[in-house]
Amino acid sequence: MTTASQQAPAAEVAGLAIRTGKGSPILDGIDFVLAPGAITGLLGPSGAGKTTLMRTLVGVHKISSGTVKVFGLAAGAPALRGAVGYVTQAPSVYQDLSVLENVRYFAALQGLPRASALEAIDAVGLSPLSHRRASGLSGGEFSRVSLACALAGKPRLLVLDEPTVGLDPVLRAELWQRFAALAQEGTSLLISSHVMEEASHCQTLLLLRQGKLLAQLTPQQLRERGRSEDLELAFLQLIRDQEVAK
Ligand SMILES: Nc1ncnc2c1ncn2[C@@H]1O[C@H](COP(=O)(O)OP(=O)(O)OP(=O)(O)O)[C@@H](O)[C@H]1O
Fold it and tell me: Any idea where the ABC transporter domain is (predicted)?
């Protein structure tokens, strides 16, 4: 049986603005709803406000105005602690600990059993390396340890800041398969990237530019509105069209 909270949107953002006092706001008038159990891509050029928006959703960034709700509760509410996983751009992994020790440590912080660490390591395909020291891992393996740490608590919303940056095409494809499997199991994922090509792996896209949400749409809708099969060209066309419409 599903409860009302399980059916609630993964996130609801209304009228969100973040101002620092100087210059234009970092985020301005952002409104969107994240469907549960879907992969949402957060795309936009460097400095668009992607990290700030993600930090707001996980409740670690103060907002100037508007509301940010996650599973019906104010972002950062104590009751959401186990429900939201966040992987930052810089992997938070201890170099001198093994893969297993790292993930067990994060699991223990949340009061989770050893089995949850093993499951999370398995989910990112690192079981054969579980006793390897993190300092001896490749870049891609290292980022997957960070992902496993976030997965150990089986979060209902997983917020990933540029998880595929610096990875080779094979590893990138492998990670997107893992994200799809998580969404299939009901996890909601918000994944940022500035590589438009990755947008094709997402069900919905949030297109951010200069702190404003240009559009929330599917990859196919972006191709249609941007009049190109190439998502990068389509995004550029969308920007041009909006500049002309101003
Ligand atoms: N605490 C802060 N004070 C002032 N400006 C800030 C602060 N934090 C971020 N900014 C600015 O807000 C803008 C958005 O930053 P943010 O890191 O959210 O962008 P991003 O889209 O994640 O960029 P990238 O893809 O390069 O990581 C940038 O211009 C940044 O310099």
Answer: 11-235
Backbone conformation region of residue 149, classed left if phi is above 0, alpha if psi is from -120 to 50, else beta:
alpha
Q: In angstroms, rounded to a whole number, what is the distance separating the alpha carbons of residues 73 and 189?
A: 17
* Site to substitute for ligand 1 among 24, 51, 63, 160, most atoms within 8 A of C-beta: 51
Domain with CATH 3.40.50.300 in the chain: 9-83+156-193
Q: Helices (DSSP H) in 74-168: which residue ranges?
A: 99-109, 114-123, 139-151
Q: Is the CB of 25 under 6 A from ligand 1?
A: no
CB of 26 shorter than 6 A to ligand 1? yes
How many Å lie between the centroid of ligand 1 and the Cα of residue 205?
Answer: 20
Supply the CATH classification number for the domain 9-83+156-193: 3.40.50.300
Q: Tell me if 48 CB under 6 Å of ligand 1.
A: yes
- What ipTM was assigned to the predicted interfaces of this complex? 0.95
Q: Which token pair is 114?
A: 């050893």
For the Cβ of 27 lying below 6 angstroms from any atom of ligand 1, the answer is no
Over range 127-147, report the average pLDDT. Answer: 91
Residues sharing a CB contact under 8 Å with residue 70, sequence separation 6 or more, in sequence order: 10, 11, 57, 59, 77, 80, 83, 84, 157
| Nearest alpha-carbon partner for 194 in 207, 182, 181 | 207
Closest CA to 119 of 91, 148, 158: 148
pLDDT in tens, 20-56: 877 789 999 999 999 999 999 999 988 999 999 999 9
